[in-house]
Amino acid sequence: MHIDSHAGYLHVMNDILSLENITKRFDNTSAVDGLSLPIAEGETTVLIGPSGCGKSTILRLVTGLIRADQGRVLFQGQPLERKDMESFRRHIGYVIQDGGLFPHLTARDNVTIIARYLDWLDSTMAERLVELAELVKLNDEILDRYPAELSGGQRQRVSLMRSLMLDPEILLLDEPFTALDPLIRFELQADMKDIFRRLNKTVLFVTHDMNEAAWLGDSIVLMRDGRVVQKGGYRDLADRPVDEFVRRFLRAQRPPEAGNGGGP
Amino acid sequence: MKRSRSFAVLLFVLVSACLSPESQALTVASKKFTEGVILGEMARQMLERDDMEVRHRRELGGTRILWSALVRGDIDVYPEYTGTLKNEIFAGEGISDMEELRRVLEQHGIGMTESLGFNNTYVLGMVWNRAERLNITRISDLKRYPKLRFGLSDEFMDREDGWPALREHYGLPHEGVRGLDHDLAYRGLAADRLDVVDLYSTDAEIQYYDIRPLVDDRDFFPDYHAVFLYRLEAARQYPENFQRLRKLEGSLDEHHMSILNARVKVQHQPEGSVAADFIWENFGQETRVPTSSRLDRFLTNTVDHLFMVAVSLLAAVVIAIPLGIAAARYRRLGQVILGGAGIIQTIPALALLVFMIPLFGIGAEPAIAALFLYSLLPIIRNTCSGLQDIPASLRDSAVVLGLPPLARLRMVELPLAMRSILTGIKISAVINIGTATLGALIGAGGYGQPILTGIRLDDIKLIMEGAVPAAVLALLVQGFFELLERYMLPRGLRLKSEA
Question: 10 Å Cβ neighbour count for B168?
């Protein structure tokens, strides 16, 4: 999968991010066990699996919130060192289940917090805010509210705005829709898919919902006990399951007729 | 930025506190009982000249406090008793006579006047008429009346050199001697339910209840001659003033002292004018007695109190918040910090005040230092727990946004911990206001001053003059912090708490 990015005019399926032989243990149980996973640039990769399979741990390893016991994470071919993390983090956006919005700041201030830290010009910040608000379909009035005054769906939209503020190459989303009720969830999934396609970001998306995975993912990584069981498009998993676990997992979460990355 | 500004304010306040002008060349002090205050007033008035004001720090907390202040040079003169010197300050050094005492004092740079003329020690006393009828003038005479009812103070009953030793010494036959509260003993005497009580030879009650003190004819009780202690250095510098002070030597006997005590305690005359009258009558010398209205006193006390509270609290905020942050970040260090602050909190307030005297002398500085130490724990603890209680998801979000640690602290963590931190400061402030009333014991003034005087003179109105404003101040400060919380706490956090 690793194609030299200097190859030029070819549409490059380059691995922007790559996990190599990663092991992470918590209290002697392995959360991630010798896992290697290349993440293709510009694609949406969905990590899926039962609870405790290590899918969220992978996001936390990539963000540097936790360090791997073994193995390494490469960004654009370079291994990430501890000292690089702060600048690397400006290349990633991170959205978690409850949004992780700071309750003491308005939606607007949540979105702009990092830009304010970086001393952006007010005008630049305002422009970016308008762009992002339009992208996630939020109006100005809502941006003046505090997180406690927002609905769950609005919170996730604001959180997405915040993660996109610095226009990062990579988006990490950790079960962002899990806490939402089905109608809002459906709407947000559709909008999200649209946004991913428009921005052409590399997305690493964690979910336990196969419907969502099939709907959003260019590539689905099914995990179990800290290892990758199978990786591929939805049809690959559905039509050519490598083992009984994959078959059972898909059967348990049978989606409506879902293509691998097709439109609604 | 904000932090450095408040630090500058603090520095300014501290520096100005240290530089606050002490215009008086000499300072007299006294312990917190009436006789001490009267004698202190006498010393002040005798030392004072038209061109030289002498300050009197009244009602300091106790022998140790005055002694260390004198040795340090914070005060120049105070009245003391020879027995106290032998048994408390130089306990265990086996000092036998006045000359030896004088020599030991000199080694500390301290001089001692001759006795002022009275010996304020324990005595036994009876109502005058009854003693007259039974012809009792001496303790030995009591042996003839084994049926007399004794009511002795609990302290006197318990002391090894108290009742058991006295009984042995004189071979007194009396049985069923009761220990009771001093005030109750006097009342029992007045109601004719008791015949003999113990008292101090100059107690005001001697006048009030018309008591005859019995002569200690077999020299049982130790001598507690009243003297002035003074810094030899000060006496060298102001020889003429100290010469006048020495006029008081031998000028007062027990009877007269108890009359003066009664004028203050029973007739509620101010100590200053009682002392001035005495000086006028005995030496024909007119002296100044500064008078102050209740409003003046209230304002002075308020300023003193607020100063103590404000400076100590401000310093505590500046120090405790960073300590709380460190404690939240580094678990081990946190245990050390919280443990240390906790230990300070267990030291009784009065002891902590006394510990501060060798470092800061007497007055506002040691009180501020002690209050500062007391204010640390609530602020440290609340800062630490406020930070630790921030949900991991928010902390992680701030990290992954790429904010470096200090920016996270400033933009996310401290605002989120604000409510807890403000609560800590509020608790400290309220405790501080209450504890600051003890500052009067080490000469810091404040609302504790009228409380001390009120307790000494058994004057509820005077106690209220300190207790009520202290309570009101505590309420005001509490209200102020609630307003501050409303103002400083982001609306988003208040919403959360309502939800």
Answer: 10
